[in-house]
Amino acid sequence: IPVYQPTTLRDGSALELLKQLNPEVIVVVAYGKILPKEILELPKFGCINGHASLLPRHRGASPIQWCIVCGDKTTGVTTMYMDEGMDTGDILEIAKTKIGENETAGELFGRLSLMGAELIVSTIDKLSRGELTPIPQNESEATLAPIIRKEMAIVDFEKSADEICNAVRGFNPWPIAYTIYGGKRFKIFSAK
């Protein structure tokens, strides 16, 4: 299978390549760039994104970590039409799952990746048969899941025990929750 890895989508070369390939659908998962309008409008069945949250909750780069840090009890995977916004397109399908009491972001990532693969296959199958009705996202329920930075993982001991445990689980396996004590950095891999 030929693999193409354009470094940019803005100079037109990727668009020309995609026109030559003439895809019926484009599927995007965990891709940190916004697709230009010309690419979004190219495929017959559109551009589909598999996103690891129950949209519109946790739009953005780090939905798996933030659902745990925020104390969500349920999460899942959403397939949606891509538009020019960040995770703002119409919802096609949703698969839900409970978050384990002690589940880390790394463990949840593994489960959601399998769910996401199955949901994308389902979505493409149903789209090709005209069986899906896109549902606009409720903007009033939208939350953001920004890129995780190391300094976000410092434990704030002013927070509740539950909030601290959620942060420890949400920042595992990266960047790992930590505290500074006696001038030294201590990583916290689990908490209860």
Question: How is this fold's topology laid out?
Answer:
Blueprint: H1 13-21, E1 26-29, H2 37-40, E2 47-51, H3 63-69, E3 74-81, E4 91-98, H4 105-128, H5 161-170, E5 177-181, E6 184-188
Helix and strand element order: HEHEHEEHHEE
Helical content band: 25-40%
Can you summarize the main beta sheet?
4 strands, mixed
| Number of discrete helical segments | 5
In spatial order, strands of the major sheet run: 1-2-3-4
The average pLDDT value, as a whole number, equals 96
Identify low-pLDDT runs.
none
End-to-end Cα distance: 46 Å
Which percent range describes the beta-strand content? 15-25%
Class derived from helix and strand content: alpha+beta
Q: Globular, elongated, flat, extended or rod-shaped: what is the shape?
A: elongated
Tell me how many strands there are: 6
Rg measurement, Å: 19 Å
Description of the molecule:
Strand 5 (177-181) and strand 6 (184-188) form a beta hairpin. The relative contact order is 0.14. The mean pLDDT is 96. The chain has 5 helices and 6 strands, in the order H-E-H-E-H-E-E-H-H-E-E. Helix 3 runs antiparallel to helix 5. It has a 4-stranded mixed beta sheet with strand order 1-2-3-4. Helix content is 28%, strand content 18%.
What are the main properties of this structure?
28% helix, alpha+beta, four-stranded mixed β-sheet, 5 helices
Short description:
With 192 residues, the chain is an alpha+beta fold. The protein is 28% helix and 18% strand.
